[in-house]
Amino acid sequence: MAQGRKRRVPVPRSKKGSARRSGAWIGTVLLILLIAGATAAAAGAYALWPRCSGAECPDVSSLRDYSPPQATRVFDGSGEIVAHLAPERRIVVPLERIPGHVAGAFLAVEDKRFFQHNGVDYRRVVGAAVRNVQAFGFDEGFSTITMQLARNVFPEQLTRAKTLRRKVWEVFIARQMEQEFAKDEILEMYLNQIYLGDGFYGVEAAAQGYFGKTAAELDAGEAAVLAALPKAPNDYNPRTNPIDAVNRRNIVLGLMRDASLISAAEAGEASAEPIALVTPLEGRGEAPYFIAAVRRELRARFGETAETEGFRVYTALDRGMQREATRALRDQLAAVERGELGTYRGPTCATGEIEDPAECLQGMFVALDNSTGNVLALVGGRDFNISQFDRATQAQRQAGSAFKPFLFATALAAGIPITTPLLGPGAADYEGGYQPADHVASDAPVDLREALRLSSNRAAVVLGEQVGVNNVVRTAKDMGLSTSIQDYPSTLLGAAEVVPIEMVSAFTAFANGGTVVHPRLIQRVEDSQGRVVWEQRVQAENVLSPEVAFLTTSLMQDVVDRGTGSRVRTAGLPAIVPAAGKTGTTNDAADAWFVGFTPEVSAGVWVGFDKRQRITVGGGGGTVAAPIWGEVMAAFYEGRAVPASWAPPANVIAVSIDRSSGELATESCPPESIYTEWFLIGTEPQNYCALHSTGIDGWVDRGFRQLGEIFGGRRGRREEAEQF
């Protein structure tokens, strides 16, 4: 609270007028009532004042440390407020930051003689008594600003009950406050304390909430709107009662003119203007799950009072991405419910006719900045009003084939080349006997690239047997997965449950050349004075070699460009934007995933039911989840510079390979059989393709290959895929 006593706000001056003469009988009645009232007040004061002591009587000196609860505010990545966390939205500012015409507007309408009285305006008492007698009721009060402040800062002792006891206490407490504090100090407390509707307390919070301005930026008309509110905050609320608000504002403007705060011309001009309001925070609530997550983190760090400490909480929320993610998720869930993505037998919740919200199809989207881990967008469900459970940060779901990149990264780290055959001629046999269902049923040669592109379950198990499931689990743990992951063959196919935001965080290691960054919801927290009280450092650690990260990313690029995740492209993400990722579908198509990344952003989508059941017949991560990811990222990169693709590390080389033989291509190989593959130096093929060479060596080699295909081939069962 400002302690200065010199500043004075322009005071509205009342104009003297001639009093209307009343009849003798009215004067007699009025005199009797005034005398009776004065006698009763004196008697009440005598009876009640001695009891106003100790715990029952408020200590006005405690206001020396005036520090009312202030709403903690959350800011997005552009520095704009996205939420007030406390029910009381209050921003305390010193009187020096409140212009004279703003403070004067409140004085003009609430207490014209504020600087002349000692807490009680006796002229106003008499005037109010006269008018109440004339009205045969209690239409007009006589509370001064000091008395109003006393009511507001001591609500337990000074209730709003219309009793003589309460009014007497209010008078005496107001007198004490006037003895304890300078007028400017009282006015400052009042302007920060008064309720102004819509949960706003004080002129600063109201100015920002109604007009998107600070109190220092308010014009006369806007100041008059706020000054109109203390009398009846609900009745004169400009959002809910705009006509009454305009009428009341114009009355206040007239009082401001009479007090010489503004000219007659200024009053007339302001009276003719409509009240221009900004969108309320509730209407700007693009990120309810995000804000709820911020609230939880603040409580965990600062306790239950964090929301009323007046903190300034800075985040990296991208409101454009947040809005697009919310829309894309809702639209896709509605499309699923309409049967557009396969036969759907669940409840339809898109129409809003919901019997049991727990049965609705749900989903989540979360995006992280690859360099910092900053959460750019977070959608924890289809509708926060229906379900506050955050599926991005609080849920644990089977990952399906979205888990497979951990397996392939483990294999590449073990030195297994991408061209290693996993299915078809030359592939190793199963050792453990676990043969899962697989939508890739042919025995055509499948190497690591094709295995991940097609999401072959059999190939994944073969690869897992080569590297060891325990090593795959270790890789996943090193990359940030905190849930229980068992050393089972089914783990290779994503049977373990994971937290979605941890999956997205783990994928940042691929995007960052081996460095994983952990999610950072809050960047820093400042107190009400702008002092940093906590700052969340970027948490990053190297978990993969740059070579392994690059090679795994290369595999996942094929998933997006020509594999199970290709709907990312058809949903709108241009081919010029480098992107990689992996789809995931669990048993019975109960979970649909797509987790992917660009050089700048990693993001994940999950769709499913809270109570596990099939989403659609024949649907999966590629059809249900990937399009959501593609739409959001397409919108994100619209008008944004396209980042450069991932550059290969120094000890990774590109080699021309013959697709049929898996060996170094020669001039004899058909052009359509030649492709470029990446290798760690030293793991590339050493032999040139003999399959297409001429002469006896080529003939002999081709003969042995054909015999191998005849006697060594494996016929897999054609079954519905479990997880892909």
Short description:
It contains 21 helices and 18 strands.
Taking all residues together, what is the mean pLDDT?
A: 84
Overall structural class, as computed from helix and strand content, comes to: alpha+beta
Provide the β-strand percentage band: 5-15%
CATH class of the domain at 24-33 and 93-272: Mainly Alpha
Main β-sheet, spatial strand arrangement: 2-1-5-11-12
Explain what this protein looks like in three dimensions:
The N terminus and C terminus are likely disordered. Among the domains are: 190 residues, Penicillin binding protein transpeptidase fold (Orthogonal Bundle); 61 residues, no CATH class. The protein starts with 23 loop residues before the first helix and ends in a 12-residue tail after the last helix. It has a five-stranded mixed β-sheet with strand order 2-1-5-11-12, with no helix packed on it. A five-stranded antiparallel β-sheet has the order 7-6-16-15-14, sandwiched between helices. Helices cover 37% and strands 11% of the residues. The chain has 21 helices and 18 strands. The longest helix is centred in the first third of the chain and has 25 residues.
